[in-house]
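Box 3.1 A note on notation
Throughout this textbook, protein chains are presented in two layers. The first layer is the amino acid sequence; the second is a token string describing backbone geometry. Keep the layers aligned when reading.
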Amino acid sequence: MSHPRGGIRLAAVVAAICCLLLAGPSAAPAQGEPRPGSAEWLARDVENLLWMTGRTQDQLTHPEYVLQLVLKGNPLFLENLADQLNHPTRPIVSLSQLVPGARAADVYRHDWERQGRGIMVPIEYENRYGARIQGEVWAPRQPFTDPVTGEADPGPYPGIVITTGSVQGFKELYWWAAQGLAEAGYVVMTYDVQGQGKSEVFGHDPQTGFIRCAPADCPGFPFQQAANFIEGTEDALDWFLSDRNPLRGLVDADRIGLAGHSLGAAAVTRVGNADERVDAVVAWDNANLPPDVPPRVPTMGQNAEAGFFPEPHLSPPNPDSATNAFWRFKDAGVPAMQVALRGSTHLEWTYIPFLFAASRDGERVAMHYTLAWFDRWLKPDTHAADARERLTAEVFDDSADASAIGTGRWQPEIGNVPYRIAGIPVAERLSFYLRSAYAFDGLECRDMRAGC
């Protein structure tokens, strides 16, 4: 999950808090934005820094989450070992494979199928280099009732392929999106890129079956390279649309989307705008379109304010630091949208326990816009007006809350209470510092938080 911006700036964080304490309490200005460097600005920025740690705060005070992490994580570790023993010539050397509990991620999402929320089928295939790739395909429960029209829909359904981030990103981190999209009427594929998660590190010679890793010929290794994610997306899309996909009969090949995070976001933006089979793209925190690839399909970028750790904003950052691709799409007349999440880190789109910070409901905000974007461009015309309304709304509806079954706050009298955003003003969940904007269907907004 590499990130284009820098890491933590601890000294600056401390300086911001110290300045706030020395300045003493003061009310925010009655009108407009606080003046950069003022006590009001610092107060808001410190609050924003704390906002970036909300999910971690809740994990640390959630006794059931800690227990479930052990109960679900240990069997997964044993499953990893058994899988490796059954495939001794196909080494899987990744943190999620070797660290007990790593693949547990959001523990409340492992019971999704048992709760009757949809269909999940484990899959595996060989990529272009002969490496063993593992993943899942997800589909709506049958019979399916469309949540927008309220009518029965037997399919086929739009298809979505999700590519993970790098630095040992693994598919379980993105189950929130796969499950939410499947519940809303999509067939979704999640997979581990070669060298990450449960997928093999090395390729194999197609003639001998031996590992291909001579000094001059070791394709796909090391995994931390853009090619793995670009080629991984292409191979996954090929497999998803082939008869090898056990749920291929439920997929409408004329309505295909891609989503990805970090290095995976850059990969799906490139592949989606170059591959004629793709009709829409959502890029989570790295919507980077190379100069040699022209804008072609409706593309949404979502971005964070910080990298892996909370970062202060002691002075105003460039509000368009993440919108380069958006303006290219807009200028080309291709539908585009950029959503900057408030008080957010690069980990909003993943669920990593304890190690990295994220806000409480950034994932739900991401789900809201991801689902609405795909609904607008991949669902029938009957969904267009509803999707457009959700994308441009000033208050969140409950569309993202429908799949909110993950870890949230712990309340002793209730237990786990998943995060929900219905009824919250949109402006309260958009970045103070970075631009959120859209241009599609003849609508244009250059600052969603300020109002259009």
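The two ends are 33 Å apart (CA to CA). Confidence is low (pLDDT under 50) at residues 2-31.
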